[in-house]
Write a structure and sequence with these properties.
By secondary structure, the protein is an all-beta fold. It is built from no helices and 17 strands. It folds into 2 domains: 96 residues, Immunoglobulins (Immunoglobulin-like, Sandwich), CATH 2.60.40.10; 99 residues, Immunoglobulin-like, CATH 2.60.40. The strands form 4 sheets. It has a 5-stranded mixed β-sheet with strand order 1-8-7-3-4, with no helix packed on it. Strands 9, 10, 11, 14 and 15 form a 5-stranded antiparallel β-sheet that branches.
């Protein structure tokens, strides 16, 4: 069976085992060193750090470490090493993917207050990140015409207890007839990441 999981992240996989010479699920199995091996990207095999445990009714779970998951294709082979095997040989194929990161920025032209308001949220694999996972969020706004800053890089503030961030600018505001780019930067998962978004009153 093939399973999809994030690359380089500890993974728990759940799978059935079949009794040797039968069509029934195998229950009450125990595992010893050598019964379960892992190969990364078709390389040499090694015993897994952990051994499977039974969930029940012939279903088992195995925890693969982040190191064992650090490959594009992770292959796990389960073969009973006893003289009389108690379960049919099984293989698990795990295709991995790299995490993707996104950001969304909203611009609000608040004419009543005479301010430009910016709101940003950050995402990982399409899911909004909680604010605690985002470090040092910053915003910069520059002009498309010459690259000059309208708003120099500055920190953003968390919006209450939500997972979004804000910045308010009352002096250097966006004007009609000009194009700008918003650049947001944040440290997420120990790496600095940045995104660009065009903006303008004429868009």
């Amino acid at each position: 069976m093939e399973i999809v999981r994030p690359k380089g992240v500890e993974a728990v996989v759940i799978f059935p085992l079949i009794e040797r010479g039968s069509i029934d699920f195998a229950t009450g199995l125990s595992f010893a060193s050598g019964d379960v091996v892992v190969s990364k990207d078709g390389g040499s095999v090694a015993n897994t750090t952990n051994l499977p445990t039974e969930i029940g009714n012939g279903l088992y779970k195995l925890t693969l470490t982040a190191t064992e998951m650090s490959a594009d294709l992770v292959s796990v082979v389960l073969v009973d090493q006893t003289t009389v095997k108690t379960w049919e040989d099984q293989a698990l194929l795990l295709a991995t993917y790299d995490d993707t990161y996104q950001a969304k920025v909203w611009y609000i032209d608040d004419e009543t207050a005479g301010e430009d308001r910016y709101v940003a949220a950050f995402f990982k694999n399409g899911n909004v990140l909680d604010a605690a996972s985002v470090t040092s969020p910053e915003i910069q706004v520059y002009q498309v015409a010459d690259g000059a800053d309208l708003v120099a890089a500055t920190g953003m503030t968390q919006v209450g207890s939500t997972d979004s961030f804000r910045y308010t600018e009352g002096s250097n505001r966006i004007v009609d007839g000009a194009a700008y780019v918003i650049k947001v930067t944040a440290t997420i998962d120990s790496a600095t990441r940045q995104w660009l978004q065009p903006i303008g009153r004429d868009l």
